[in-house]
Sequence to fold (170 residues):
Amino acid sequence: MKSAKKLVLAAVVLPLTLGAASAFAYGGKNHHKGPRDECGMGMDRGVMRQLDLTDAQKDQLKEMREANKAEMKAKFADGKEARMAERQAHHAKVQSLLLADNFDEAQATELAKEMVERQTERRVQMLERKHQMLSVLTPEQKAKFVELQNERMQECGDRMHKRMEKSRNN
Fold:
């Protein structure tokens, strides 16, 4: 029985390890800094530069970024051990689900709901910060921001379409 569990564990861990190693070898730790990085719906400085912000607006946005940075540092510094314990507990739940003799759909559903809940909380916080930053803009700047975002979405969609065509042809 122990050897069967070891075999299942090896079957799960080996592909993950090889996948991580190949991803690291392909692009290193900063693989997200490529051309796709500019396809997000974020508040990057390139877009903000195109909005002709006043000095007061620039100062407000800088203060917001610094306050958010300080808040995030404090949040991560305070509960580091608690977050680590929470991650380990979650990992243990996932492992027990995957390595059990029978699949427990109720337990899997509960784990998935927990993950969705955490992701939803992070998304809401991110949207709240974006809203605060956009509230600094004038109506004209907001209209230009929307226009720039739409242009970016179109360019990224075109780029993705080209990549899909290229991958189909290979």
